[in-house]
């Protein structure tokens, strides 16, 4: 950066100061005028946007960076401290929520464990098995505070199945989303889109106030980060890091099983699967191909393996630019989101149509991955 750009970049801290003042100057007025959601969105987006320059500089000073080469496609040293700004914003704003339900406490403690583990991992890499243990502990906290899949019959066998599926869901989505963070704007953009549909469902269709608030806080926090991470015809200034990607993945997994929004009809259980369709399909296919090719032979190898065989990598390999690859996955996520609205609001015929369209999309994603896999083996 030249001197003028450095000065301008430092001035971007000002929105953080504005966000700190908003709780004291605007909260009561905005709440009295039914603008509480706008308030949360303003505070979180401004706070993250203003924090990023601070953590950009901190990442450079402490050498918390990703360097070119290996799996990385960027061409210059880039700080991976953007996720810390999102975590700080989320934590501060979550504590501004008045009269939260009991589940809020569990969500706060569980997300704090994920965030702390991710930050330590970004600063000094820790073994994958320790990160898995932290995720298991965080999931136990979620379950103890009532955030659990709850569509089985209410007896000991049904309860046991609910707990097992909750572990599989939360751990699977958390790690799948971490793998999605491979192109500028990909993980952050997809999360914003997913949260947008979460909020619509929570606000309009099931009136789950607190799920909507948590979703809005996280959406705002990520929105403040996105302009630095996805820049038109320019490379990202800063990355999410493992702290950001695992935190976002964990929160998306937790929100998808939070509250009672999916208990009205059994078909609603497909909604989080559709919204998270890209990372789910990606995780399933990469796991299958890696086991088939003998690249992973144990859980530890699966956790530690980092390859260029994910869906976004395959889009690059067949000729799409990084920006186009990101936009393609965003569009797929939007289509999946629209299908979830049809699934949630419609009757049986609409639900069948939405499910069939989703299956076609899943099939196309998997077919594309298999096609690129065959082409790779022929080279």
Describe the overall structure:
The protein is mainly α and about 375 residues long. It has 17 helices and two strands. It has a two-stranded antiparallel ribbon with strand order 1-2. Helix 13 (about 275-290) runs parallel beside helix 17.
Chart the SSEs and their pairings.
Blueprint: H1 3-11, H2 14-25, H3 27-32, H4 36-61, E1 65-66, E2 78-79, H5 82-94, H6 102-123, H7 128-144, H8 156-180, H9 186-205, H10 209-229, H11 241-256, H12 270-275, H13 277-292, H14 299-304, H15 311-317, H16 322-345, H17 348-378
Antiparallel strand pairs: 1-2
What Rg do the Cα atoms give? 20 Å
- Enumerate how many helices there are, as a single number: 17
Count of discrete domains: 1
Task: Tell me the overall shape.
Answer: globular
Percent of residues in helices comes to over 70%
The count of strands amounts to 2
Strand-residue proportion: under 5%
Q: Strand-and-helix sequence, N→C?
A: HHHHEEHHHHHHHHHHHHH
Strand order of the largest sheet: 1-2
C-alpha termini separation: 41 Å
Q: Report on the biggest sheet.
A: 2 strands, antiparallel
Spans of at least 5 consecutive residues whose pLDDT stays below 50 are none
Task: Describe the structure in brief.
The protein is mostly helical and 379 residues long. The protein has helices at 3-11, 14-25, 27-32, 36-61, 82-94, 102-123, 128-144, 156-180, 186-205, 209-229, 241-256, 270-275, 277-292, 299-304, 311-317, 322-345, 348-378, and strands at 65-66, 78-79. It has one domain (3-378).
């Amino acid at each position: 950066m030249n001197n003028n750009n450095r000065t301008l970049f430092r001035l971007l801290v000002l929105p953080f100061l504005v966000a700190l003042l908003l709780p004291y100057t605007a909260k009561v007025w905005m709440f009295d005028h039914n603008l509480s959601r706008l308030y949360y969105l303003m505070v979180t987006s401004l706070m993250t946007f203003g924090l990023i320059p601070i953590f950009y500089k901190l990442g450079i000073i402490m050498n918390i960076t990703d360097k070119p080469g290996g799996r990385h496609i960027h061409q210059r040293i880039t700080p991976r401290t953007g996720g810390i700004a999102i975590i700080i914003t989320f934590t501060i704003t979550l504590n501004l929520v008045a009269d939260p339900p009991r589940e809020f406490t569990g969500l706060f403690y569980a997300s704090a464990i994920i965030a702390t583990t991710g930050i330590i991992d970004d600063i000094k890499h820790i073994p994958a098995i320790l990160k898995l243990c932290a995720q298991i502990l965080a999931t136990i906290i979620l379950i103890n505070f009532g955030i659990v899949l709850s569509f089985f019959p209410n007896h000991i066998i049904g309860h046991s199945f609910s707990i097992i599926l909750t572990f599989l869901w939360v751990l699977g989505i958390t790690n799948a989303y971490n793998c999605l963070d491979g192109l500028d704007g990909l993980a952050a953009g997809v999360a914003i889109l997913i949260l947008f549909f979460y909020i619509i469902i929570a606000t309009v269709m099931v009136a789950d106030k607190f799920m909507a608030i948590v979703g809005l806080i996280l959406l705002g926090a990520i929105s403040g980060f996105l302009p630095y991470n996805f820049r038109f015809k320019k490379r990202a200034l800063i990355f999410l890091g493992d702290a950001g990607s695992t935190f976002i993945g964990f929160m998306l997994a937790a929100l998808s099983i939070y509250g009672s929004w999916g208990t009205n009809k059994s078909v609603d259980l497909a909604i989080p699967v559709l919204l998270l369709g890209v990372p789910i399909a990606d995780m399933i296919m990469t796991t299958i191909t890696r086991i088939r090719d003998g690249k992973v032979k144990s859980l530890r190898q699966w956790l530690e393996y980092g390859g260029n065989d994910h869906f976004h990598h395959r889009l690059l390999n067949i000729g799409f630019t990084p920006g186009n690859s990101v936009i393609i996955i965003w569009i797929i996520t939007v289509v999946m989101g629209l299908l979830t609205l049809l699934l949630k609001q419609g009757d049986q015929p609409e639900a069948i149509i939405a499910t069939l369209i989703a299956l076609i999309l899943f099939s196309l994603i998997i077919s594309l991955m298999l096609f690129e896999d065959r082409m790779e083996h022929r080279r």
